[in-house]
Amino acid sequence: MEELACVRCMSSKFRNPNLVFSFNVCGHTMCANCIEVAFMKGSGPCPKCLIPLRRNGFKLQQFEDASVDVEVETRKKILQDFNKTEEDFESLDDYNDYLIEIEDIIYNLVRNINVVETKERIDQYKRENKEIIMRNRMKSKREEQALDDLIEEEKMHSQYKRDEVLRDEAEQRTKKLRVDSELIDSLARSNSDARDIVNTYTHKKEEIPVPKPKPISKPINFTKFSTGVKFNQSSISISIKEGPLFKYEPVSHQLNGPSCPDITQLDSLGYMKYIRRESSQELAGGFLIKTSCLHYVQECVSALYERKTGKV
């Protein structure tokens, strides 16, 4: 990988580790100082490829290779419109073809391959699926909002629980300080034995209950995704319909030649005479050399009597 450097001043991280690099749609990296100088008017050409760029189009580079950042940003932008789910298709094959189409579009845009045709495909897709795109966007926003609400609610309950524990601990410390104060007063005013007084108040301090975590009185109201799965569930139960039991039917091979011997006849007919035996590892894996020998014999006799007719 080439050294990370600015395409305008050629400064690199090796020479100046404090440099901050940004990238644009063309994928070429520039430092913050060169962006300020070259794009004072808000727009201008890329110093390397001369593609028209805007100053507000530069984004902070996260990866060492700027092409990775370009692909990430392109993927985010494309998936905002290509947001269909498997529920929007009649079959799984159609959905897989749709995913392949998305990857082809992203690849073309990142690699600058047929960019004009690719953008026309994107515009045509937006026109034909305008309602579905808006519906899925709203659906995604609702799910994100529900998840944010759940996280915020959990934070509030966690904070309430921490505050309750701190209150209990402060109350326990106050009780212990009160016992210590009473102990000092008793030692100062009483004529009894000091050891007995100290033992008495030591037992009082030990009898102070230790605060225990209390259950949250208000249960968390878990919301659901649009699929019906709750946020606190790992999966949704699926009802499985049992079908007919599997029935084995032997495979019949249509041979255009003499009948093939059975696998039990291979030894008696001499087919196994010049074939090696299985090793212990092969036997452990379920491999039988007779099966391979039978397949070989079937291939030999499968088209032995076949005649070419010249017809296609």
From TrEMBL:
Question: Which is one GO molecular function term here?
Answer: zinc ion binding
SUPFAM superfamilies with a match to the protein in the record:
RING/U-box
Question: In the record, which residues are listed under signal peptide?
Answer: none
> Which of UniProt's keywords are assigned here?
Metal-binding, Nucleus, Zinc, Zinc-finger
Q: Name one GO cellular component term.
A: transcription factor TFIIH holo complex
Record bears the keyword Nuclease:
no
Ranges for the RING-type domain?
6-49
The Gene Ontology biological process terms listed for this entry are: nucleotide-excision repair; regulation of transcription by RNA polymerase II
Pfam families for the chain: CAK-anch_MAT1 (PF25811), MAT1 (PF06391)
Where is this protein localized, as stated in its record? Nucleus
UniProt cross-references to NCBIfam families, sorted A to Z: cdk7
* PANTHER family, A to Z: CDK-ACTIVATING KINASE ASSEMBLY FACTOR MAT1 (PTHR12683)
What's the protein called, per UniProt?
RING-type domain-containing protein
